[in-house]
Amino acid sequence: MSNQDLARRTAAEVYFDGVDISTSVRKYLISFTYTDNEEDEADDLQIKLEDRDGIWLTKWLNAAVEAAAETLSVSEAAAATQYKVTAKSGLNVRSGPGTSHGKLGALAFGAAVDVSVIENGWATISYSGKTAYVSANYIESAGTSSGSTSSADGTGGSSVAVGDIVQFLGGHHYISADAASPTGAACSAGPAKVTNIALGAKHPYHLIHADSQSQVYGWVDSNTISGLADTSEDSGSTIGLRIQAVFVRENRYGDGKDTVLDCGQFELDSVTAAGPPSEITVKCTSLPYNAQIRQTKKSRAWEGYTLSGIANDMAAAGGMACLYESNYDPYYERVEQVTESDISCLSTLCRNAGISLKATNNILVLFDQAAYEEKDAVKTIAKGDGSYLKYKLSTGESDTHYASCRVSCVNPATGTLITATAYIEDYDAENEDNQFLEITAKVNSVGEAQKLAEKRLRLQNKYERSASFTLPGDPELVAGVTVMLSGWGSWDGKYIIKQAKHAIGSSGYTTQISLRRVLEGY
Predict the structure, then answer these.
(1) Closest C-alpha to 90, from 134, 145, 40, 123
(2) Is the pTM of this model over 0.85?
(3) Beta-carbon neighbour count of residue 407 at 10 Å?
(4) What is the DSSP letter of 372?
(5) Please, what are the averages of pLDDT over each run of 10 residues along the chain (522 residues)?
(6) End-to-end Cα separation, the chain, in angstroms
(7) For the residues of 449-491, what is the DSSP string, one character each?
(8) Euclidean distance between CA atoms 77 and 91, whole angstroms
(9) Strand pairing of 321-325 and 363-367?
(10) Do 256 and 1 touch, CB atoms closer than 8 A?
């Protein structure tokens, strides 16, 4: 916590694979930008560094990690045990051992964390250079932090953790939610990635192919794993490097308290060097372009699945968590994925169902926009109130503005027509200029057709009113929250943030938000 007499300022904290390199980065920092998207895109992180001495160009990663590692004593390193976060929606980091203590930030699903001690259900860790605490109920042991390669001992995950690359000796595979009795064709031996662990189960480990990520092994016996695979050949590579970032607005209100914006977990995407003057740009994404879920083209089918079930399958195969936040969960008798990546297939399913998809913090989030839009506004931006630096208001329609949407389907077995129609809030049946959207989709009931019609109408019309504002940095303004506009004429009303870009640069900390008008009545 800042001293309340200190000047108000914002600091960026950066972690490479759990190592705090904030001090190393700050003296070279040109700009630090976090882009938070509401839907259909991955979140991004960009760090731009001055490199007149060539340090970052020649050995940017090693220099940073080694400098940060020097702050950890030998005794501390030996005592710390590495764990991995199992909470699918992320794990809160607190200033003390209990929920009554303040939140310092959050750790992503699958994030590695060094724990020095666990007492009374709380694990002691180091976070932002401070002693911090997380609930021990949402972490599992990943072995010692020294990286020793012990063999699996059949105890359901005491020496092998989710995300580990193991040596698979060959055996059967089985695709099911039940890990008790795997059956099926034998799979070839080789390295594989652990995607799930069923503690205490007869067949505790779920694996996927570690090279192409194209073959799902399914649940396997403990005795088919010889231990962690040798990955020393890749030890110098930065591909797969996990990066976490936090904005800390110190003493924001002059009361000595800091406001924290936890940007989440990213993976290194690219490093670019340019000049003169010499600059290094590090780009990171919450859904890497080389990730299996984005790159690997697959052909498979799901029968008797819901959308949430398909999304959970794809997330697990990609080593991610899945968070489904909608009461509407369409059921499919059969879905085919033909030479298409998981994320592309899932995006199409979500779009057709009127569900929004977002990749963030190692989580696939599927949500109902209407529920987000109903939340209370976190801020009111009034014309001339001095709360903003720049603004832009616009109207635009990517397509025709529709007054209604009808979804229809003919049941092939009975010949019965299933149909339902949704209307905009101020629908005027006498208006000759009304435009109607016709959708043919497979639905099982009138109620399902009505829900789909409402969602497709919303998606088609949602960009009728839009705005953008640049404001002094505000950690509360993130994608998915709502704000009110007042005094802007026909633009007055409630808006949802579809993108928030937080940046620290020569002009200080700023937040740029892109807004779209909340759709009401349907």
Answers:
(1) 134
(2) no
(3) 27
(4) H
(5) 45 74 80 84 86 68 48 41 75 86 77 80 80 86 43 41 68 65 69 69 70 63 64 40 79 68 81 83 78 77 87 82 85 86 87 82 82 87 93 70 85 82 80 81 85 80 80 89 91 90 88 84 49
(6) 45
(7) HHHHHHHHHHHHHTTSEEEEEEEE--TT--TT-EEEEESSGGG
(8) 23
(9) parallel
(10) yes
Q: What secondary structure letter does DSSP report for 377?
A: P
Q: What are phi and psi of 371, to 5 degrees?
A: -65, -40
Nearest CA among 485, 472, 466, 467 for reference residue 511:
472
Residues 245, 260 contacting (CB under 8 angstroms)? no
Task: Return d(Cα 50, Cα 28) in angstroms, integer.
Answer: 5
At 519, the amino acid letter reads L
Sort 142 into a burial class: Cβ within 10 Å, 0-12 / 13-18 / 19+: buried
Residues comprising the chain, all counted: 522
Q: Are strands 122-127 and 190-197 parallel, antiparallel or unpaired?
A: unpaired
Segments in 168-324 forming alpha helices (H): 292-295, 307-317
Cβ count within 10 A of residue 383: 13
- Which strand ranges, in their side-by-side order, compose the sheet holding 404-410? 417-423, 404-410, 436-440
454 CB contacts (<8 Å, ≥6 apart)?
354, 405, 422, 522
CB atoms within 10 A of CB 305: 18
d(CA 283, CA 298): 28
Cα(55)–Cα(399) distance, rounded to whole angstroms?
Answer: 50
Three-state SS sequence of 14-81: EEECCEECHHHHHCCEEEEEEEEECCCCECEEEEEEECCCCHHHHHHHHHHHHHHHCCCCHHHHHHCE
